[in-house]
Amino acid sequence: MKISIIGTGYVGTVTGTCLAELGHQIVFVVRDTKKRDLIPSGKSLIYEPGLDQLLEKNLARISTTMDLPDAIRKTELTFVCVGTPSNDDGSINLDQIRDVSHTIGKSLASDDEYHTIIVKSTVLPGTSETLVIPILEKESGKNAFVDFGFSSNPEFLKKGTAIEDFFHTDRIVIGVNDPKTKEVLEKLYQPLNAPIFATTIRTSEMIKYTSNSFLATKISFANEIGNLCKKMGIDSYEVFKGVGLDARINPHFFRSGIGFGGSCFPKDLKALIAHARTLGIEPQILTAVIGTNEDQPAKMIDLLKRHLDIAGKTIGVLGLAFKPDSDDIQESRAVPIIQALLKERAKIIAFDPVATENFRYLFPDVSYAKTAREVLDADAVLIVTEWKEFEDLDYRNKLVIDGRRIGKAHKEAVTYEGVCW
Ligand code: UDX
Fold first, then answer.
1. Dihedral angle sign, alpha carbons of residues 249, 212, 170, 262
2. Residue with CA closest to ligand 1 atom 15
3. Which atom of ligand 1 is nearest to the CA of 265?
4. Are 318 and 381 in contact (CB under 8 A)?
5. For 418, phi and psi rounded to 5 degrees?
6. What span, in angstroms and rounded, lies between the C-alpha atoms of 156 and 253?
7. Which of 11, 161, 219, 237 to mutate to test the pocket of ligand 1 (most atoms within 8 A of CB)?
8. Other Cβ atoms within 10 Å of 346 Cβ, number
9. Of the residues 98, 202, 397, 408, which has the fewest C-beta atoms closer than 10 A?
10. Are 196 and 186 in contact (CB under 8 A)?
11. How far, in Å, from the CA of 64 to the mean position of ligand 1?
């Protein structure tokens, strides 16, 4: 199939590249000349393991353009993958969705072929039906589900494992309203051999928010139990191993520690909370999930203070990315931790294998080490991200406060405190 991808951030680039690997012809619609010129040379400008290699492998089937109407005319299917960031009050910002809907709608007006629009961007339930489709219909003068196809198809890709997640997904969720679009999507995803859950458009949008809310809730729950375990001298990792054996519960996303960050969980939860309030519902559990998550990084500082008077000491920070195998520092737990250390007048030496430059932009005055080894010379070491290479360091004679459970540090450090164990 000929497919255009609007939005070449993380979701759009991964989705387009993986669809090219499945044999489809992909047109990335970009907004800047840098991406337009770099993508055809196999550089995505996105840090995701394996992505550039896959892009390079499939270049014969990939092109870029800045001309959205032309991309619509030359393709049969369009994925909308633009960002839906937070407003200052946590509510969702739909500016990009609104803008591209107008442009797509206008382009559909002069497109003689049948075209299918698929929204992959995370949008609150009802957004497709009350915002996107009305704009598309008004601008094109055509009727959705009759003159053009429409679907919502949320993404569940995790940074660091997105390519694996695409090809080996647990399920594909499609929100559809007409048999033709359903058939198009089933055909598109058939090679993945994954269960396809077809439902209404607004239900599919809600599935995305519910999945992320549930996973974030599981993590904050693990952290609350973990905090209790810490007080009682119990290892929460052992507890969750035992609990996770119950098939009703399962062992995944039970890693206690300093909480969740990234571009999805915090943003999506806050958007759902803000939306619930507009509907007159106070979402008590979701609010508590955010509250627990925000309190968790401070536990590291409290533990450190038990062993050291922080002022004037050099504190090493291992890991700045919100999770390993990513250079993303959005809502990274490293941010409140570094802020707290600076407030306590600590000298900081920090290291991350790939996120340092992004972090330096936020904290230009912190010292950044070139290797993880250098960080170990500090008076104390805080482990903030569980990069695999941190398992190879020599922690003997070190004071380590571990927010992510690095086994070797746990075994070796002369003084070791885990946040929840
Ligand atoms: C998440 C969802 O998992 C994915 O399905 C969705 O499409 C996008 O948002 P992502 O944010 O990339 O993916 O990474 P994820 O692996 O979910 O981790 C999110 C955060 O939770 C990280 O900060 C991670 O360290 C933390 N986490 C995860 C825990 O603290 N404990 C866990 O057990 C799992």
1. negative
2. 158
3. 9
4. yes
5. -95, 150
6. 14
7. 219
8. 23
9. 397
10. yes
11. 30
Residue keyed to tokens 């230009």: 364
Atom 7 in ligand 1: residue holding the nearest Cα: 156
Nearest to 58 by CA among 77, 32, 39, 30: 39
Radius of gyration for the chain, computed over Cα atoms and rounded to the nearest angstrom: 23
Helix (H), strand (E), coil (C) string for the chain: CEEEEECCCHHHHHHHHHHHHCCCEEEEECCCHHHHHHHHHCCCCCCCCCHHHHHHHCHHHEEEECCHHHHHHHCCEEEECCCCCECCCCCECCHHHHHHHHHHHHHHHCCCCCCEEEECCCCCCCHHHHHHHHHHHHHHCCCECCCEEEEECCCCCCCCCHHHHHHCCCCEEEECCCHHHHHHHHHHHHHHCCCEEEECHHHHHHHHHHHHHHHHHHHHHHHHHHHHHHHHCCCHHHHHHHHHCCCCCCCCCCCCCCCCCCCCHHHHHHHHHHHHHHCCCCCHHHHHHHHHHHHHHHHHHHHHHHHCCCCCCEEEEECCCCCCCCCCCCCCCHHHHHHHHHHCCCEEEEECCCCHHHHHHHCCCCEECCCHHHHCCCCEEEECCCCHHHHHCCCCCCEEEECCCCHHHHHHCCEEEECCC
User: What is the spatial distance between Cα 270 and Cα 293, in angstroms, rounded to a whole number?
Assistant: 12
Token digits of residue 197? 């859950």
Contact 185, 174 (CB under 8 A): yes
Residues 6+ apart with CB under 8 A from 373: 393
pLDDT in the model for residue 393: 98
For the question of residue 264 being annotated catalytic, the response is yes
Q: Which residues, listed in sequence order, are joined to residue 401 by a DSSP beta bridge? A: 382, 417
Contact between 305 and 371 under an 8 Å Cβ cutoff? The reply is: no
Reading the block at residue 421, the tokens are: 């164990």
Whole-structure pTM value: 0.97
Task: Give me the amino acid identity at 167.
Answer: F
**Which numbered atom of ligand 1 lies nearest the CA of 254?**
33
Q: Mean pLDDT for each 10-residue chunk of the chain (421 residues)?
A: 97 98 98 92 95 97 96 97 95 97 97 96 98 98 98 97 97 98 98 98 98 98 98 98 98 98 97 97 98 98 97 98 98 98 98 98 96 97 98 97 98 98 98
User: What does the block give as tokens for 82?
Assistant: 């633009």
First to last CA, the chain: 51
How is residue 55 written in tokens? 């892009």
Alpha-carbon distance of 386 to 370, in angstroms, equals: 17
